[in-house]
Model the fold of this input.
Amino acid sequence: MYLAYMNHPARSILDEARWAAANGFEALDLTIEGPAALLDSFDPAELRAILDAAGMRVVGHTAWYLPFASPVERVRRAAVEEVAASLPVFAAIGAHLVNVHISRGVSLYGNDDELKRNGASFAELAHLAEPYGIQIVVEHPPSRRFGLTEICTILDADPRLGLHLDVGHAFVAGIDLEQLIDRLGSRLWHVHFSDNRGQEDDHMPIGAGKIDWQETIRLLKRGGYDDVITLEVFDQDHDFLLLSAQKVRGWWATL
Done:
């Protein structure tokens, strides 16, 4: 298992990468989004040098608010093109996974249309990413409207798509992790950890909310997952993030 730090989108990507390297993270979950982490805000070669010097892996993360399910075709295509434009940069820094977020559509068009448009967007991105050696992983939202059935429907759009499990999102959405891992474990390629109380995606430190983390780790290990886990903990004091890392490493080693 490799613990990753996600850069804060309001801070310098290079400064964030240096902090992650200095504090023992094994990977960077690089989110390219505004206001300060835009595509043209950093030198990919300089970032790659920081990561290589620290022996860190990297996974790609895209903006959560891109409208992949918009019924306005030009808007939907713009979302696809925005991610497509980032693929050469992600490849240049060594990323082999890039995530996308399931998008909410317009209720008037119905749920089936929403799932279809998400699936079509992600299938196209899977095709565009292939020449770069990148696989697209789909992150589910913290909403009870998107359960295991809906996730599977979207992944069925293309066999090249993988699942990005966000444990905090799953807790808010009421998704049974055991069922999800049993059904989609072979397509589980990336994981996010953050805590919450079951109502909102609070991005709290591990142990500050109501998620049973020891059981979560047991289920992941039983399902064979042993790759990058991102601590998506947003707090003014990084001590909480470092304590979260200590807890996760301890449980992973002993459970």
